[in-house]
Amino acid sequence: MPNRVGEILHGALRTLRREGFWRFARRSLLWLSGERRQYRPPDPLVPDSYDAAALSGEGALTALDALAARATNEALIPALPPRRTKYRPKISVLVRTYNRPHMLRLALTSLAMQEYRNFEVVVVNDAGEDVAPLLHRFEAHFPIQYICHPTRQQRCAASNTALRAMRGDYFVHLDDDDILYPFHLATFHNASLTHPAARVLYGDYNHVLLGQRGSVLIPLQRKIVPHWAFDPDALLWSNFIVIHASFFHRDIYEVMGLYDESLPGLADWEYLLRTSRGYPFQPTGRIVCEYRIYDQVSNMNLRRRIDVVDALRIIYERYPTENPDLLEKRRILLSEGEAQVAFLRELEGQIGRGEITEKAANAAMLRRLAGFDGVGDDHLPSA
How far apart are CA 135 and CA 32, in angstroms? Predict the structure, then answer.
């Protein structure tokens, strides 16, 4: 035992000489406060690494379904210890919401289930119905800033409101219709300690299609998205990171500023693209969240798809390239966007003429725009 104590003291002195007093003191305080604790999932529902390469086959999809069910299980919340902290939060989770309290409840539940504790939540209500009573149920588990827009300003403005209010050293976004896995914040926190110079980190994710069956959400289909190796040039033609799978240091906000509210859409991608011009992105290599799509489609309507195509043209013009491969990929993606707009126009016409049911139209949109097949697609139109 005395030898072990001597080794620890000797190592501490070496570190003190190498790093200087203030850096050594800060590292020691972080260690004592638990900031360097390595968090591990309490029950291994999927392989320990949670990496996309290790997850394959039906077993992996079933494990991810179980993991998502645990992340959103409200029955577990009463047993959780209080997690509020009197210290300034290390991480700010920025949540934008509008008239979806039932989905917001699941998103907040996934935050209450986080294994990493030192975070705050900034909820920006974009002039929707009041959710204060809902937020009150979670106040014992994390500090909440609740901000309400007096008039509707769209998602991008809600992100900017949250950015101005956040107090953390790092920030991550979470839309009200998505969830984080319980080890999401712990994964990014640990990665930030391993790579302290990194200002943008990102994780892997999967797509899941959910259906409402009574009062229960049922996963209908799930697709693991392959890991994307950071390539700033690839971001010049498309986006490969969903907003809640990215993790930013506060420096990014202070240097890059706010999201571009002049864009009709794709502001999240433009922010990543803008940031990638000056900062490399550090991958975690772990699946940390899921991007949720619902079988009653609300985000694939004609107006929104037109806005996406218009935003695509603006971004391509703002970030020019002479690379012939990238130019061809841009042409293909823009052409597909225009074809989707034409498809949605035809679908609306068929619904108006009574040639197709709304259920069949919904399934057609899921198949064409999101890649989910066989979801109640009776009498589908040819696309």
Answer: 31
Q: How many CB atoms lie within 10 A of CB 197?
A: 8
Over residues 145-153, the mean pLDDT reads 96
- The DSSP element (H or E) to which 255 belongs, if any, is helix 250-256
Residue in 302, 303, 307, 314 with CA at minimum distance from that of residue 365: 302
pLDDT band at 362 (very low <50, low <70, confident <90, very high): confident
What pLDDT does 103 receive? 94
- Length of the chain counted residue by residue: 383
pTM (2 d.p.): 0.84
Angle at 127 between CA 122 and CA 129, to 5 degrees: 90
**Lookup: tokens for 14:** 């070496």
Q: Which of 371, 240, 238 is CA-nearest to residue 293? A: 371
Q: Name the residue type at position 183.
A: F
- E strand or H helix that includes residue 120: strand 119-125
User: φ, ψ for residue 238 (rounded to 5)?
Assistant: -160, 170
Parallel, antiparallel, or unpaired for β 281-294 and 200-213? parallel
- The structure tokens listed for 383 are 């696309």
DSSP letter (8 states) at residue 297: -
Q: Which two tokens stand for residue 324?
A: 């012939």
What are 331's two structure tokens? Answer: 């042409």
Q: What distance in Å separates the CA atoms of residue 240 and residue 225, rounded to the nearest whole number? A: 9
| Beta carbons within 8 Å of 44's beta carbon, 6+ residues apart | none
Question: What letter would DSSP give residue 224?
Answer: E
Of 72, 87, 71, 74, the residue nearest 143 (C-alpha): 87
Closest CA to 108 of 142, 85, 79, 84: 142
